[in-house]
Amino acid sequence: MQLVEANSSIEATDSAQHAAKDLLRVIQDLGDKHSNPVLEVLESRSTLMQQHKYFAHETEFTGRVLRAFYHCHPSPDHNADEHGHFHIFIRAPSADALEWTHLAGVSMNNFGQPLRWFAVNRWVTAGPWLAANVLQTQLNRLPKATLSMDLTERWLIAMIRFYQAALHELLQERDRVLMDYQARAPSSHTLEDRDIYLLAENRIDLVLDLQQAAVMYAT
Residue 103 domain-assigned? Predict the structure, then answer.
């Protein structure tokens, strides 16, 4: 498949500004522990099992709006510099506790730092499939991280809120790529096609984006 990559962007909004501050604060807190989001989840394990879902505690947070897990595995689109990735799910609207839809994944390098956001086909994670505009509405309702949450949860929420505009672009691109597949093969079950794994990706340069945010919010 030919992948169309979305462009990274951040917003000059009060919400994004608060998210940038939250993200810087949790990065500082992780630094004070000489830790990172991946180390917090793995809890110094000496052996890492592929495909195992890591999160040492209850994975639902922010009022049961989000859930996430971390794992490692060789995928069709695996990058050599990737250690593993978080899969992040959001509650489907008007659904019971078992109804979670995949929001995005965030790929992490060997130093526990983010490489890219990515969106996969439905067969990869299952669950209901929601269009980008519906997911955006859900994201608009996402509460802020609080100090009562653990560091990885705070980091994930701050990342989602800080990159909300980029995530919306990613999900729109995901939908466009999927529609293109469906237009070329209208009778196929595209969402369950195991030859289609990655639909869109959005590379992350966290240091640069936070630097740009600092300049943006200072003006």
Answer: yes
pTM: 0.86
169 φ/ψ sector (left φ>0, alpha ψ -120 to 50, else beta): alpha
pLDDT for residue 36 = 95
Q: Tokens in use for 213?
A: 């945010």
In a domain, 2, yes or no: no
Q: Do residues 139 and 111 make contact, with C-beta atoms less than 8 angstroms apart?
A: no
* Structure-block tokens of residue 15: 């919400």
Q: Which domain holds residue 128?
A: 14-218
Q: How many domains does the chain have?
A: 1
Q: Are 113 and 206 in contact (CB under 8 A)?
A: yes
**Domain contains 112:** yes
Residue 177 has pLDDT above 80, yes or no: yes
Question: What are the b/e assignments for 93-102, b being 16+ CB within 10 Å?
Answer: eeeeeeebbb
% of the chain residues with pLDDT over 90: 50
Distance CA(25)–CA(214), nearest Å, equals: 14
Q: Across residues 165-178, what is the average pLDDT?
A: 96
Rounded CA-CA distance 104/124 in Å is 12
Q: Is residue 6 part of a domain?
A: no
Q: What is the pLDDT of residue 2?
A: 43
